[in-house]
Amino acid sequence: MSKAVKIRKGLNIALQGEADKVCANAKQAKQYAIKPTDFHGVMPKLLGKEGHKLKAGSVLFYDKYNENVKYASPVSGEITEIRRGAKRKILEIIITPDGKDAFETHDVADPNELTREEIIQKMLDGCVWPFIKMRPIDIVANPQDKPKMIVVSSFDSHPLAPDYNFILKDDKAAFQTGINALAKLTEGAVHLNVRGENKQSSVFEECENVEINYFGGNHPCGNVGVQIHHISPINKGEVVWTVNPADVATIGKFFMSGRLDTERTVAITGSKVNEPKYVKANIGARMDSLFAGNVDEENARVISGNVLTGEMTSSEGFIGYYHHQVTVIPEGDRHKFFLKDGWLSLGFNRFSMSTAYPTLLNPPSKRWDLDTNLNGEKRSFVVTEQYEKVFPFDIYPVYLLKSILTNDIDGMEKLGIYEVAPEDFALCEFVCTSKINSQQIVRDGLDIIKEECL
Amino acid sequence: MKLLRNIFDNVHHKLESNEKTKKFWPLIDAFDTLMFTPKDVTEKGSHIRDAIDLKRTMMLVITAMIPCLLFGIYNAGYQSLRLTEGGWDASVLDCFLAGLPKVLLLVIVSYVTGLTIEFIFCIRNGHAIQEGFLVSGMLIPLIMPIDVPLWMVAAATAFAVLIGKEVFGGTGMNILNVALTARAFLFFAYPTKMSGDKVWISDFEAMKEKSNAVKAQLADGTPIPEHLANTPELVDGMSGATAMGELASTFDASAAKAESVASMFATGGQFDMANSFFGLIPGSVGETSALACLLGAGLLLGTGIASWKVVVSFFLGGLGMAGILFAVGGNPYFDLNPIHQLMLGGFMFGMVFMATDPVTACQTGTGKFIYGFLGGALGILIRILNPAYPEGVMLAILIANVCAPMIDHMVVQSNIKRRLSRLKTA
């Protein structure tokens, strides 16, 4: 049964630099990289060393703990470098493209005519499986699981988020094919959650084989975790799969063409971008190929993803596997005199959810240019009921965080850790007076749960 | 500004370059971060952060206490001057100047003692200093009687910071409100200096002597100055007790005594509604004025720093209990109008500044309602039914502090049960 939910808790942060609805082609990047760190908890086993030649869609590595799940090279080329971190952990596998358009091919098939097992096998072989993520834990889905439903959020409510109505406007058939494939994977329904207030493109509106739910209100109404919580919360032992809408289309294209098409539309956003817009680029492309001189890189922070959950990188870094957005904002590494623009200033131009700053006196249409300053120092938990204002779950967030900090597995399970992902805590982290990094705490907690309980 | 910045950078550098002085960094860090919001940037998680920090939060609480502080200074002088010769004519400024040195000393002693201990712990543990004591250090003098010896303030502050806070792990970890711990310590360790009728008015003993001298003059038939003749308190001899003390004294007292006390609370009496609301009555330095407390409440609630849930439920709890006892009636204490009852003693101050302390209050929304209601109702109950503790609000908030984790536990358990029942029905 379809649902309509309005999220009243939460916070919309209107930043400068929203992408215009124009799409350019990025130039061919000098390098591409697949970062095994994008797939949390995966232990990569490489199939080749430096110098190994690959086609687009060729298997690059597989997961040691789940050998069926393989990860592909986004372009045809050659492995030129394997960057490692502490304990020789593989951070980035750099692929230099050879300019040829060689790709692995698989049989074209209509998912409606395949069985569940055939679809899974095909997706595993074609390396499109990693697009499916699972809740709880928020990691790549395990093909052996039987999800109670699959949830696709057709919109992203994060600051400056890309508009999937625009990104997918020409991919209606591919999106429907992807949905058809997903529908076979679950005994429950595929839930397509669209934004309640806005006019939807026909890609979502006319989509079949799904249950459409309407979500509106404040961010994080676009987070799948919030949506699942309001559709059918995850209990211990249950699994829900989620897929990004653009990746649904990629899965669809795979079934329609028999090849892994890693091209995606990326929104280049943020106040440091001269002309925020969309560009077409391949997964793992180096940032500078996306920027093409369109970005003021002086004292800027380049984020793969959005400002709340994205990953810090640089113009020599690479776009993340699950990211459809790049944000560039100013760094805030300067002292602020306490009366002028620091902690005791009148603060008309400072953004805060708290009414301790006169943020509300600004016109609601104002778009903010926020920098990366921590705006304070890390402190103990002091202020209470602050997270609850931006956390639309029937969960006590601080109690959950404290149970994680004290390594209390029983407490975590009881307090609802199966329902949350780090991204659901991003706003808590944003509004926190004590500047506590709750996303990392939740990730640590999920790691413990994965280790001990799954 | 640039000069200041350079000075701090230099001092940091000097401190860091020497192994021996390195550990004193919290000292300079505290002043640096006071003058400048640090240049630290986000490294993990959300890349942008809300502008709010603990410094601003705590500073707003201190700002909210300023009306209480200023009025407390004025009232300290007013109470002291009103009965001395010519004091009835004292101007606002005279009263203020008379009260200033005493109150200022209390504030200084409290801050110096508390901050010294905080710094010692920070240097020992290698932590940056947290802002919690900035508020406690101001609260402590405001809930002291004006004539409390300074060494007692220092001892109480030290006790509160050490036993009330640091042993639990410092700011954010304490179970009991730090300022109330200081007051409770004095209340039980030195009761004669914290209750009775000698400590609430500055130099009360000296004053009393003067008053007696006038009385003697009266008895002799010597004419007394005209302006003093109209001061009934002087002529009758005033006890110097707080409103609560006066009311408590009617237990087991004669009917005549009860009547005379009741008349103090009637319009025109020393503790009438107007005096109680504006605060021109004896009491702890900052707690007497309901008006000043309400001004502070306005700021704290407007900025969202104090929880309206606690304030509202605390008020309703007190009002409900006072209403019930009023309905019972029987002595001047019970017969006091409930609204009037709430304006006296530490109720308003406790409601606005003590019960709302986020660290020691309940953390869950539902819990806050229960906690506030419990604190308010208990405060009035203890105050009225137990004449040994006329300042029941302080004890009630401490009891509510102790109960807060249990209340939260019950609220969280019900959330957990809800989650488990979902699994069963599914």
Give a structural overview.
The complex is a heterodimer of chains A (454) and B (426). Chain A is of the alpha/beta class and 454 residues long. Chain A folds into three domains: 1-25 and 105-334, no CATH class; 32-97, RNA polymerase II/Efflux pump adaptor protein, barrel-sandwich hybrid domain (OB fold (Dihydrolipoamide Acetyltransferase, E2P), Beta Barrel); 376-453, no CATH class. Helix content of chain A is 21%, strand content 22%. Chain A has helices at 116-125, 164-167, 172-183, 202-205, 224-231, 245-257, 287-291, 397-405, 409-415, 426-431, 438-453; strands at 4-7, 23-25, 32-34, 44-46, 53-54, 59-63, 66-72, 77-84, 90-97, 133-135, 139-140, 149-153, 190-195, 211-217, 240-242, 263-269, 277-282, 300-304, 311-313, 325-330, 336-337. Chain A has a seven-stranded mixed β-sheet with strand order 1-14-13-12-15-10-11. Chain A has a six-stranded mixed β-sheet with strand order 2-17-16-20-18-19. In chain A, a hairpin with a 6-residue loop joins β18 and β19 (311-313). In chain A, α8 (397-405) runs antiparallel to α9 (409-415). The mean pLDDT of chain A is 93. By secondary structure, chain B is mainly α. In chain B, α6 crosses α7 (178-189) and α7 packs across α21 (392-425). The mean pLDDT of chain B is 88. The chains are: A alpha/beta (454), B mainly alpha (426). At the A-B interface, β21, α10 and α11 of A face α2, β1, α3 and α21 of B. β21 (336-337) of chain A pairs antiparallel with β1 (36-37) of chain B.
How far apart the termini of chain A lie comes to 30 Å
The gross shape of chain A turns out to be: globular
The portion of residues assigned to helices of chain B is 55-70%
Helix/strand-derived category of chain B reads: mainly alpha
Q: How many extended strands of chain A?
A: 21
Give the radius of gyration of chain B: 24 Å
